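Incident log, entry 3
Record: 1-aminocyclopropane-1-carboxylate synthase (483 residues)
Problem: checksum mismatch between cached and fresh output.
Input:
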Amino acid sequence: MGFLRNQQLLSKMATGNGHGENSPFEGWKAYDSNPYHAIKNPDGVIQMGLAENQLSFDLVEDWIKENPESSICTLKGVSQFKDIALFQDYHGLSAFRNAVANFMGKVRGGKVKFNPDRIVMSGGATGAHETMAFCLANPGDAFLVPTPYYAGFDRDLRWRTGVQLIPVVCESSNGFKVTRDALEIAYKKAQEDNIKVKGVLITNPSNPLGTILDRETLKSIVSFINEQNIHLICDEIYAATVFSQPDFISISEILEEGITCNLDLIHVVYSLSKDLGFPGFRVGVIYSYNDDVVNCAREMSSLGLVSTQTQHLLSAMLSDEQFVDKLISESAERLASRHKMFTIELGKVGISCLKSNAGLFCWMDLRALLEKKTVEGEMALWRTIIEKVKLNVSPGSSFHCSEPGWFRVCFANMDDETMKVALDRIIDFVFKPNKKEIMAPKKVQQKWQANLHLRLSLCGRRHEEVTKTPCTMSPHSPLVRAT
Ligand SMILES: Cc1ncc(COP(=O)(O)O)c(C=O)c1O
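Fresh output:
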């Protein structure tokens, strides 16, 4: 983080900036040095830059208490300790692969079946993406990625593989839809630049948009990659975060419906980091329809296996169908009500979000508040939000969004009370000193704009100083650590 590595002692890769994490992500620093705590630090910064699913942990904790034998470090489970500690086959425990395959089918509404023999383990979706890039592309080759996209892809797919990512520019005018035209423009540009395109990488449901891809869009993407004979990687790690209609449609569902396509080109990346809220367990999955990719990825997986202790615990948990059904439906309900509370309250002060029905975040539209409709203008507003409103949110530019003024705000990594404080701070900021004032949305927006412009101009000097320093944050940085 921000330090210069010794270029003589270390490799080019180690000293290069391929990981994208050398910039001083100020939002995280602001949070780390002054984290909010209801009692100990009520004026601290609230973390809204972290896509964590913490709303249903009570259910998981109850299950753990009721099933002590599933943890091998308990009196009830210790008899299994030796076997589990010794197991090291990189195929993984078969009970684990069966349970994960079953779970993947369940979170896709039981509409598709996954073959446990195609499940390859990896260290989170992070490891899965890198393995996919190694399997499918040579250094210099590229994947097309619709924008805005998860900033970690720049590290995961590119850093150690030498692969490039080419943005497919999507716009707010049609809700950031991934259109055939946008894909073709990006593909053509790559050809003109003599870059070999090996595939398209989509995230469905989307991080940061919280939207899902509709059937027509999925079909058109499949047709596109099939015609070009390139791969399609579908990151579906937010599959179970869909909390309202329409239902999630997995790429696997499209394939099962019988679309004409070379199945060898299709690969799904999954993990339990978001749907179950277990990013610490580092459970990632590659599910490929291509036998060679399955075999190669499995051999590579030796470099990033999931601990057998974790496999053992999760195979027991995920095989408990009744528990899993309850967890999936309860989690969706809690996400829905948190999303509703957040968007309704924002709406009252004239702030809108992109319409969404999935994910752990909202894509908040603050374009009207930018002094300058540029990335710099966005960063100035972002700093004001961190410094004055004391909320760490993530600017759209860190997701390669083509339009300044969008911000991702996470809402599932905190309790109800903290969420209320966060909302109060936004409302306070808009209405100070009389925050109870309720106005028609148009008027509210004007007031919010006027207030904000005043505040921006008051902190203008500070912004100028910051933006002129040599260590100015790259537009990609604040989110690199955020997930
Ligand atoms: C779209 C997407 N893919 C992959 C990841 C990495 O997930 P994991 O924790 O499983 O490595 C994230 C994390 O935020 C993500 O949002």
